[in-house]
Amino acid sequence: MKRTIITIGASSGGVSALTALLAPLPKTFSLPIVLVLHRAPDSDLVSLVQKRTLCPVCEPEDKQLILARQIYLAPPDYHLLVDRERFHLSIDEPVEFARPSI
């Protein structure tokens, strides 16, 4: 089964651009969106992004199914891996000093 997922990566300075991109999306936007940002472990980026979009936003858990009409935000300090239908969280070594890597 072929799956289409929109993936966007940014450093912590890209939050404004990211929220501007997501703001006009309709609640019925049909594709899953995966966001990978470098951020502090204690940041509440899920709430910040949720306030600026109509689409539901969450941090996926390990082995969570990927669903349409959802915005997924990579959890801080985890690499977020994607297979055909699920997310996988990894604490492998940082890539270029970052985890999650983009």
Count of distinct strands: 6
| Overall pLDDT score | 90
Q: Could you tell me the strand content as a percent range? A: 15-25%
Shape annotation:
globular
**Low-confidence segments, ≥5 residues, pLDDT <50?**
none
Radius of gyration: 13 Å
Order of strands, widest sheet? 1-2-4-3
Helix content: 10-25%
Structural class: alpha/beta
Largest sheet: 4 strands, parallel
Distance between the termini: 25 Å
Give the count of helical stretches.
Answer: 2
Describe the structure.
The chain is an alpha/beta fold and 102 residues long. 14% of the residues lie in helices and 23% in strands. It has a four-stranded parallel beta sheet with strand order 1-2-4-3. It has a two-stranded antiparallel ribbon with strand order 5-6. The mean pLDDT is 90.
Q: Topology of this structure?
A:
Elements lengths: L5 E5 L4 H8 L10 E5 L7 H6 L6 E2 L12 E3 L5 E4 L4 E4 L12
Parallel strand pairs: 1-2, 2-4, 3-4
Antiparallel strand pairs: 5-6
In short:
By secondary structure, this protein is α/β, with parallel strands linked by helices. It has helices spanning 15-22, 45-50; strands at 6-10, 33-37, 57-58, 71-73, 79-82, 87-90.
Give short descriptive properties of this protein.
102 residues, alpha/beta, single chain, globular, 2 helices, 4-stranded parallel beta sheet, 6 strands
